[in-house]
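In this supplementary section we document a worked example of the pipeline. Step one takes a protein sequence of length 329 as its only input; no multiple sequence alignment statistics are reported here. Step two produces a three-dimensional model, which step three serialises into structure tokens for compact storage. The input and output of this example are shown verbatim.
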Amino acid sequence: MQTFEWVDAKSVQQAANLLAETKPDRLVMAKAGGMDLLDLMKEGVIAPARLINLKTIDGLRDIKVDKDGLSLGALVTLHRIDNDPQIRQQYVALAEAAGHAATPQVRNAATIGGNLLQKPRCWYYRHDHFHNVEGDALERVKAGQNQYHAIFDNNETAMVQASTPATALVAYDAGVELTDGDGKTRSVKLTDFFLPPDMQRPVDAKIEPGEVLTRVLVPSLPAGAKAAYHKQTERESYDWPICDVAVVMVMDGDKVGSCSIVMGWVAPVPRHATAAEEMLVGHPITEDLARRAATAAVQGATPLSKNGYKVALLETVVRRTILKAAEMA
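The serialised model returned by step three reads:
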């Protein structure tokens, strides 16, 4: 690990102004929980010249639920999201996603802001050797160990977005608040915020060097909303997902009025199962309909040489998550 400068930021504006000083040959990065960033530094993948510690900033740890929806400060930990009674009651898919991320020790330190901005878990990206050799990274993945890589939208990159809460948040149509050095804020929907992972880019999101992610914003849910989340791993104990699925449905009587089905860990960014969503709207949920919608969700998949099994697995997880959401009051 290279030496670096450490700055304890006293305000969001100070942090944003310091981050704006980043240059191609002098990388300045923000640190919240540091669970991902410090790993990348130790692995020699990222070498910032300066780290801005955000944990010394007041006002970024609050959870607020009101008529407008849910507001999460960027420093709220995954543990708090998992255990907050209001989130558990009103945004159960988000609570489940946060509670199934990593280990209890990590969830106590990892923040929602840092979790959304983490880099992919691709073992080619995580090894400094592959940053310093000739050749195309995607071609190495296609010809190599790609059992956990993307089965959709993998023409330009096969790496998958690594956040489990992101899957649920996209299903809830959530966004983020970004604050610059003048204190001005802008909001970006997560569907527009995430960028396909890149070997050379320090952050895979539409955030400028002079901005700080300060808040996650989730709209309020109408009456009749139901939701469910499922993360599929190889082992019951802690493991990275093979895929995860979040379903949010608003019922109109016994029929689906609107529906959001989002699939994670199968594409470079969380992916809406648009065909499946359209299939459910206007109909009551049945086992047969859920099965047909799940089949529609995996249409167009382009698996690589070793991850074709993810297609059938994802189809099953989508079906089960739809049925789980429909059964929840």
